[in-house]
Each structure stands twice: as structure tokens, then as C-alpha cells.
Amino acid sequence: MSTEFLTLEKAAERLGVHYMTAYRYVRQGKLSATRVKGVWQVTPQAIDGFRQRLNERKERPRTGDDSRRTGDYVNELHACLVNADAGGAWGVLQRAIDAGGEIGTVYLEILAPAMARIGEEWSRGEIDIAIEHQATAIATRLVGQMSPRFVRRGRRRGEVLIGGPSGERHALALAMLGDLLRLEGYDVFDLGADTPANSFVHAASKINDLTAVGVSVTTTDSVEGAIDVVRTLRRAISDDVPVVLGGSAISGPDHAREIGADFYANGARGFIELLDSITRGSSTVDDEMAAESSKSNAPKTTRKKAPSESGGNGAQSRRQSDADASNN
């Protein structure tokens, strides 16, 4: 059965607005439309969806509270993602930016919470995995559309390698983290998800001035892979390059240290704060600072000296520690 299409002029008539108003809705992502041979085509379903979202917004109580407005964006984006409304989802993010929202805030306070809610709904059995995958695919495209905006001019602050270990299936969080790091002035090498330990080493060896390695672990299935990555990196790279663990499968600084990492970062903000401390040349870095005011009582961790500074072979010491741990 063929799909019915309306011209943008006809769509404007149905909506009761001027043609240029309908065109602005399309450009802002509020009204889904397809351009074929220079002519915009709109389906009746797209018009119905636009009207429904418009009515829902009118029914919401108005408030000047920024947190409520952000919450509205999260709710709207969540609905678009669940309903596979890619155009509407892009429109939500575009409106948040047009209203003055910083692009980093759009990632951290709108897109990330909406995706987290979808993940929780799937884990509770409230939505099918197909919906979760569909939402992730749309969110990945949104990140692709947003990425060119995450450019910072001026002096570069360092080079960072990030990736997910073997068994890790979630690459979206890594892509978002990479953009946020670029916005802060870092050059980012993103290996994506499900990366073998030796590939981390290969990539690290190609980076001239590596500031840190970040490993994202979001599921328990990838914890063993993270252990392998940390141990393999420690045998191959200087102890002066911190290895940082983060993600929902890492419970905190103690867990990260048990695995063998130097530091734990609670989310993108925690990782950025940690890198800021490292690039400022601090002699010590507080794990709790990186964990964003975590209540952990873990002591401060001193940055390890490179072998040339300490007079010993740091990698060899690491291997001995690993052997002692395995023997115990």
C-alpha cells in the first residue's frame, strides 16, 4: 500500500499556519518531512504527531524554573525515542540549544537521562529490547548530528585514548564522552566498544603524548575484559600514563583499584575533572574528586612516577603485583 504524501503547502493548510511557519517547523525538526527532488513531502501521520506533541506542551503548566524546563526536554525526548520519532527527537535537542542550552549540557542533562530512563525501563521489562535498540540507533544519529559542534579552538590540552573492553556493547556513551572531551580541548582517540586488550596497547603506542586511557565498563559481562585491558596496558605502557575506569559496572574507587586501574571516574564530568587535575600538573589526584563528591573514604592516590623518574621498572613492578595477586 503506497504512502500518502502532502506538499508542505498542503501541510501548512492542515495545520492552519503560514507556509513559512511550516517550513520553520521542518527546519527545526518539529515536523518530520522528506525532501524529494527539491520538494518537501509530509505524511498525514507526521502532521498528527506534530499536533499531538503541540497539544501536550500546551497542557503542561508553564514555569520559569530551568530544572523543570530541562525535565520537560527529557520527557519529550524520551517519548520521541520510544516512538521512533527521529525528527521529533532532533527537534527537542535543537529547541534546547535555541533556548540557550549549552551543547555539553544538552548531552549530560537531556540526552543521557533520556537514554538512562529507557535502559531502566528495559531492565524492568516495561519495554521490549527492540525499542531500546531502536532508541539507541536514533540517539547515535543524534550524536552524529551534534558532534561537529563540539569543536574548541586554541591550544590543545592533551591526547586521550578511550574505549570499551571485550564484551562491552555500548558505544554511545563513549561517543558522547569523546565529544565532551573535545569540547574541553582534548584530542580524542575513540576505539569504540568491544575492543581487545592488545588493540588498546597498539593504539596507545601510536599516540605521542598520551595523557590518559579511559575504559568504559557498563555491564558485568565486560568486567573480565576490563581486567585484561588494565593488566595488558600496565605491562606495555609507562606507569606515568593513568588508566581510568568508569561506567555503571564499576562500583567506585575501591572496585577500580581492585581491578588495577589508577583512578575511577564517575561519569563524563568526573573524567573531565580528573583530566583537568592531571594536566594542571598536580602531584596528587583525589579519587573522590573524580567521583563527583563520592562519599567513599578511599585515601588520595599519588600519581605514579615514570620508570626514568623512580629509578625502577614500573611495568615490571606491576607484573610482579599481578603475579602476587594471582598467587593469593
Write up this protein.
With 328 residues, the chain is an alpha/beta fold. It folds into three domains: 1-46, Arc Repressor Mutant, subunit A; 60-149, Methionine synthase domain (Methyltransferase, Methionine Synthase (B12-binding Domains), Chain A, domain 1), CATH 1.10.1240; 155-327, Cobalamin-binding domain (Rossmann fold, 3-Layer(aba) Sandwich). It contains 15 helices and ten strands. The protein has helices at residues 8-15, 19-27, 44-59, 66-82, 86-98, 103-123, 129-146, 172-183, 197-205, 223-236, 253-259, 267-279, 287-290, 307-310, 314-327, and strands spanning 6-7, 34-36, 39-42, 158-163, 186-190, 210-216, 243-246, 263-265, 284-285, 301-302. The strands form three sheets. It has a five-stranded parallel beta sheet with strand order 5-4-6-7-8, sandwiched between helices. A three-stranded antiparallel beta sheet has the order 1-3-2. A two-stranded antiparallel ribbon has the order 9-10. Helix 8 (172-183) links the parallel strand 4 and strand 5. Helix 1 packs across helix 2 (19-27), helix 4 packs antiparallel against helix 5 and helix 6 runs antiparallel to helix 7. Residues 62-68 and 282-328 have low confidence and may be disordered.
Give the helix/strand layout.
Blueprint: E1 6-7, H1 8-15, H2 19-27, E2 34-36, E3 39-42, H3 44-59, H4 66-82, H5 86-98, H6 103-123, H7 129-146, E4 158-163, H8 172-183, E5 186-190, H9 197-205, E6 210-216, H10 223-236, E7 243-246, H11 253-259, E8 263-265, H12 267-279, E9 284-285, H13 287-290, E10 301-302, H14 307-310, H15 314-327
Parallel strand pairs: 4-5, 4-6, 6-7, 7-8
Antiparallel strand pairs: 1-3, 2-3, 9-10
Helix pairs in contact: 1-2, 4-5, 4-6, 6-7, 9-10, 10-15
